[in-house]
Write a structure and sequence with these properties.
844 residues, mainly beta, nine-stranded parallel beta sheet, globular
Amino acid sequence: MVFQQSFLHNIISRTTLSWLIVSTLGALLLAFAARATEAHYFPRYQCAGNPKAVFCQSFEHNTQGLNFLAAKNAAPGMANGRLVLNPERQTLGYKAARTGGHLFTIDPGQLSGFSADDFYYEALIRPYANSTTDRETLYLTLKDQQSERYFAAGFKVGSSVFTSKLELAILPGSQTQASQVQVLSDLAMPLVLGAQDGIDGQWYLLRIQRRGDALSLYLNGQEVASAVIPAGTVLMPAGVWSYNRSFELDYLAVGQAKPAELNINLHQLENQLLTGYQYEQSSVMPWQVDSGDAADIEIINLTPELFNLQLDAKQFSLQYLQPGQGAVLLQSKHQPHRFKQLNIQVLPALAFPAKTDSSQIAALWPTPESSVSADTLLRLTLAQDFSLSEHGAVRLYQLQAGGTKTLVDEIKAGIEMDAFGSSSANKYRSIRRPMIWQDGKTLLIKPHSGKLEAGKTYQVQVSAGLLQFTRDTKTFNGIGHDAGWRFRIKPLPEAKPEIWVAKDGSGDFLSIQGALNFVMDQVGTKVQSVKIATGVYQEPLYLYGVEQLNIEGEGADESQITFTNYESLNSGLGLGYGKLAGHSGGGRSLFMVEDVGLLVLKKLSITNLHQRREGVRNQAESLYFNSTGKLLVVNSHFTSEQDTLMLKGTSYFYRSLIAGNVDFIWGQNYLSLFEQNEIRSLGNSVKDPKSEYAEGSYILQARTVSEDAPGFIFINNRFTSYPGPTGNRIRPGSTFIARSAGRPVYIDNVLMINNQFDNHIAAQGWAGPLNHEPLPNPVQAGTTQGWREYGSTDLQGNKLDTSARKYGRVLKAEELPFSDVADVMRQYWPDFKPELMLEKEQRN
């Protein structure tokens, strides 16, 4: 039978956004995400509808025919996620944990009569997000009956559609690690990832097929990749392997090989949330059928109370009726499991006043009839206190001769997408973020990047109801055409060695990203330095491809860069890509740096304001240095609660402050040298947030790229502790210097020389199995590898008792691999310029 299965005090004291505001913003983001998952179709496939399958079970009552391997308390090396049968949805779900591998196998007894030369193995799958972010892979596997290996086909579903692909691969054995996968063929393709523990996202029909010596991968009935396998190879459907991607299965099936099948083509519209306003009409949405009959497709309005569906041949449009979250389903009549869903959000109707109430407005920026740079924010200061509403919008019109105007940008309340970066290199960082936010009595509005052009004039209109006054029953009626809020965009400045950013308009740019765009796009190496005037700059940043650049503020307490970003909002570390409407891939950090030669950061602070809390994924880098180049940091501050610094390549931090709580210094680095810094552990917002003390966490997680790379080196630093955002302090003796990622591909190279430690550091020093953490790699530290320590003292300079240290090595003086910082630099950064060292000394 053939088987089928259905299924910070001085860091943020001067910032204008407090931790309280950030917490409120987080709650709004969660509410927005919850509303965005209300109307979702799920298939409930019935195996009775597939009589050609010799054996079928649809997860309606049980999981007969599968042997579960994954378990929460699985043996070492086995997948430790959780498989759960959902009788209501008639699906099998998998919630990934830290270790991946084979999750379950098909009982070979269910495959009686199976033809090993001509078969398919398929599943209807909905991948969704999880807190682990390793290889993000999900495969259907075939066992080679003549060896230990498996052939596999499936998804690498990244945190963004930009990082997703389909793969044919070989797994060397049943417990293959992610780093051991051999990819035979792959194809980049946008794939949607549902929210963690949600029911949104998209269902995909994934099939691996054997015909003779050809092995093919199909997605939604269409062949997308293939490979030739050795003649005589005997393959049997084995099971499902994941490392580490959560998913939901509606069915599994094994049967006789079949040709390409029907695919509903919506031109990627299904991969984004579509929005419209009550009483307005949508644009026309085309569709087609690949390898099938369009007459077999039924278009179903799942929420007719929200919009009318207007059909016209191979296209349709919507007339929006009332606010809400809805969906349109395109589904095969004869194969109901072949479907695609469009998710649609209907927003409340917009209204703009014919006459603006000027008494409600205290100030406008840009001031009417002024000229500003194209990177301007819009600032609307009100005469009284207000709160920001969940709905409403700001519209920007370009004014033409003769009085005509063209709508060029609409900025909505809530979360939107923005892509910013280098147009010349077609490298953009695309993230989800609020484009309208509040700072006291001022409403700040960020036009979408690239919408304002030099030499053009624009007018602003603000919808009624975008904000609500808190002490006045009178409503905000908006800003209309009659208010005359018009401004002109100045030409770009002349390229010169030093350019200035100033919020008050006295510099060349109003925003730091505006200056970085100029450096990346216009001038090559003509700009050597970007100076940042005193102020709080509330913006995410992206820098790509520059050979050398200095970014320098007027002091870490004066030039402050702040923003709220985190894993649940923008999943993954991120990369720059070309633009793709509706999709983000720019990751969770505040400042993302890619492929630079040398970047120097001086006298500034970068604070990711995300506050850790239950129910969200809290990774939130302040700086992600994604480059094989070099980074020099002097007299600067970096703060986040989790994953503050993610470092690759080579970096050197001098006399700076790095603050965080969990793994807040980490990276796949070559060298990261820290000299004379304060490494500050913050109280934990999640663990006992209202108590006086909370348990500490981990400072470092080294994922150094090779055994011979020096890794993380700390010389003459102070490791301190400080209350966290909720005011709690770290319990003495509860913070560990480092924990391991626990994977063979990563090397735990950390060297501590002559550092001072406060009493929050555990006597054990390093975390390991006693703390339910993996052993380091290497398990036994040598003089040049592993976790090592020398000359540690308390904050008063008294020698520490390191006799209770575990999992690391306390070095003797004669075992030190370096005599001082200069020795490290000579070996691993030989072209470091001495004048940079002199300059940093003179400025302290």
